[in-house]
Protein 1
Amino acid sequence: MVQDTKHTSNKTRLVKLTVNGVAYERVVEPRLTLVDFIRGELGITGTHVGCEHGVCGACTVIFDGYPVRSCIMLAVQAHSHSVQTVESMSTGDQLHPIQQAFWENFGLQCGFCTPGFLLTVQDLLSRNPDPTDTEIREELSGNICRCTGYQSIIAAVKQAAIYMRKEE
Amino acid sequence: MKPASFDYFDPESVEEVLDLLHQHGDEAKILAGGQSLGPLLNMRLSTPQIIVDINRVTDLEYYNSDDTGLKVGAMTRQSTLEDDNNLKNIQPLLAASIPYIGHRSIRNRGTVGGSVAHADPAAEWPAIMLTLDGTVLIRNSTSSRTVDASDFYLSALTTDLKSDEMLVEIQIPSWAKTSGWSFVEFSRRHGDFAVLGVATHLTIENRQCTKSRIAIIGGGPIPIRTRKAESMLTGETISDELLKEAAEQASKEIDPDSDMHASAEYRHHLASVLVSTALRKAADRADEQGGK
């Protein structure tokens, strides 16, 4: 058990974590989901809440380096862990190469699903810098987009892969 | 869609978990990877009084193999096994099946123990366990016991686990050299719940089938071993005709429902096609390993 009187209560808990490299502390109910914590408690609203049961991928965040669905995790589970959201990708006005590629290839229309796609693609390209169309489709099958019909997203990922390889 | 309130505990040792389960029994629910329980909580289909979160029990994140077989700690994440390039040499059927489990972000969080114990009739792990003669190691605060996978699954989402017990490890016996395997699954999109899936495992020695296992997911309330079809193969010389007959038999041993994804009739048909495909592939692989 973590030696902290607030933390060992089972009604409310102290959650200390870092989001995009910034440390935060909040006392919350254990039933609060991670995505509601990030948006509602911390006011970092780039992560979107879609289906709320782990199907659509809109709420994808990077948890200790790995993409996870923040709508089916509890905020208390992130205590003493690190989270990165879509806000971690760009630097000031400078888009991340993956964001640039999505922009150039019309990889979004309404943009609701985009934060989840961007982080999923970032993880995909870190493991597989030159994915085939089939691999891209398989990897993105866990993210739902109701606007684009996916073709432009696939094109964006291929473009992003080229940008990312050039960068290295 | 938010979880109803609950008391939350996140112990760091197996002993603490078992004490909590002993104390709270039926009112408590174990939270492992949360990829099934999370949605159930959000939709309030599950409203436990107490959540025992075992994500801080790092002692259960391990896997190892030796001559006797493979052992996997309950809190091992699916993606940990997926990323081990050597797994296909140790347990090829398992290595081939894991990418079918949900999506990458699900596998990053989802655990082996959670999937085996949740007993979703369309999940991959229960079929893997049945096909590979897996066993589960179960503990409560005073004792431990081992249960064969074939005795573990009782009815939809229900296993032999008692309310004060916890699945701590799964065990899979070592792989016979002249074995072949196949895992085939039909779903509308990669990573979706299987409309139907088949795991097979054949051992062939001197052209004769000495062991056969066929497990079907999505074919009923629990993952099903089609034992009559298996027995048609054991002791026989494999031929295309025999494999086809066994596949027909297997499709009669399932009890699927009709739902928005497929009718029961279609699932029966799919079973005969997929089992036939899977058995052929498994037999070919066994041949390549010297089973001819």
Note: Residues 151-167 of chain A form the longest helix (17 residues).
Protein 2
Amino acid sequence: MLKYLVIVLDDTSVSYCHYNNECKEKRLIDIDTLKKGIVYAMKENLSIQYVLPDYTLPKKYVEVMESIDNIKFCSSNSDMIDEADVIVLNGWCSNINFNREKTYVLRISKEELFEKEKDIKLSFDKMSRLNVVITNITSFKDSDIDRYNDVLNSFSKDVKSLIQNGFKINILTDRIMLDAMNNCNAGAENITLAPDGCFYVCPAFYHCGENGEYGLGKTKFCIGNLEKGVDIKNSQLYEVEYAPLCRKCDAYHCKRCVWLNLNSTYEINTPSHEQCVVAHLERNASKTLLESIGKHKLFVPEKEIKEISYLDPFDIIDKL
Amino acid sequence: MTKIKDLDFSWQSKITKNITFIVTKDCQLACKYCYLVGKNEKERMSWEVAKQAIDYILNNEDKFKEEAVIWDFIGGEPFLEIELIDKICDYIKIQMFKKDHHWFNSYIFSFSTNGINYHTEKVQNFINKNKDHLSIGITIDGTKRKHDLNRIWKGEGPEKGSYEDVVKNIPLWLKQFPEAGTKVTISSTDIPYIKESVLHLFSLGIHEVNINCVFEDVWKEGDDLVFEEQLIELADEIIDNNLYEDNVCSFFSEHIGKPLDRELDNQNWCGAGKMLSIDTAGNFYPCTRFAQYSLRSKRNWIIGDINNGIDNNKLRPFLTLDRCTQSSQECIDCEVASGCAWCQGENYDAALTPTIYQRSTAICKMHKATVRANNYYWNKLYRKLELEGKREDFEKRGIKVSPISCY
């Protein structure tokens, strides 16, 4: 069931996830489209998330946007950073004035993450929540496993002392708090309204552009518009129950990114080996963290993360 | 050492790898029901492509751990490229021996042919050279009028059926492969000729007739009723004339038409993804049906190529696919679900989106008609055997029925 409507306000709006938005040409959503989108969300009981560009939006837009409760995403370079709830860092920069009231998304390549791990964790105590997004996860190799484990263990040492003060980092603390799948769920729980007035599964399916190809066809495909409503073909495939590898998996925090799925395996419901391995390294690091803290201290006495022998559920598919 | 004849070369078997070379996209015929919509005379496999494919496969033994292999050759019509095939097979044998490969002596070369060139010297020389490792199926659709309804020569001008060109080679084929079966394909137009065709094939000495309806959405209103009537008449002929003693028709199987358990019977129908198909350009596919010349409305699903090997991420959807995830609730709950086949390639081609996870149900009515006729067949046959006191013997003998084939 849909719960959220993401509204991409401009073609240059920031990416807050795995996809890149390389568009430099501004194209602000038509204000009537914005109004209709808000009304649509109100009628369908959807919470709104705005994705902002870096420039200051016209006052009349801000007034319309604020006619409904919302969450705003913007980049750390945006002129509207003070208004935003979620700040996206494209690569690590230490000179940010972190604000504990906001959530931070760090979009970072695995190479930069491995290189700047110490710098990054020095800022943990200035934030309340950090979401780390590895932007080139598809290039993750088996030879990266040890290095990523090192990063997770290193982060874990600092998180251990900060977690009881409320600090959260998606790759270590989310799994501890979950007892069921809690993925991105694009196409199942959230959809995106783009500046062209059409709905998309998520912003990635819009920003990939008209020439984007994934092997079986165009990656850009819309799933309806404000006039005709939402029509997702084979919509069941966006639900975890229709994902054979994921429905019995317990890497509950995994993004289960359908955009990555489509590009790497050609199927919305099938994650790549790389996405599974990364999620399981995080899961296992979360298990170690939970055990080192003691679940009673976290007020999660029922929580236990089991020992498993694999990093990719595909390796035990016959047993699932 | 295990003898070649002792091995189970069922294409669905977990121990056997099926590797298909699409040696040509050309065929002498232009069968009306053929799913190969992109046949042409230009695309032929070169020796260089074939050799590189073999080298990749045999040099990566750790990726091909199945105990045995079926080297399959299709087209178009594979025997149009008999010289290339002969060279490929010689190379495979030499390389398997040189590498002490675990497939050495655990292989067969398999062909589905229209039979037209079967008698030619080159084909016969190939057969004689490889006779202990060969499986050849000739497709003959039944009586002349049924066969010629669909299986016609390509080209301009009036339609010319191919029956006479095929049937003349059946005696030689059966002499060389006495246990061979044939595949019969049913489309909408030839339903009225099913009974006579199966009986005709039995009379030619073909004791195993594997027959199935095309998976494409070609069926017209009322086809299922005519189809059921044909099968009932066929059942009467087989039972009344004791033909069941020496012959098998895959329409009649005791395993057809039962409900399926969500958990225990959740496996996928076909071997797409477990097989490997190589086209004339050296691209790899999970099954031939995913090559472009097989697809009406979707793009080819390439899983690798001879230069870069197999991309395992592209195989994951196939190897995790199960029955229920791709089926509608109606199919999952169906009371007569067992034996209801699907073709993964046709599912993909007919799906609303580019996915293998949406099962086509175009044959639903035809399957239900099959189930009704099948129930009639077994009720009638067992009653007869009981009255004759032969049921126990019959059941002890067991019945060999090949799985419903792709085509």
Note: Confidence is low (pLDDT under 50) at residues 1-12 of chain B.
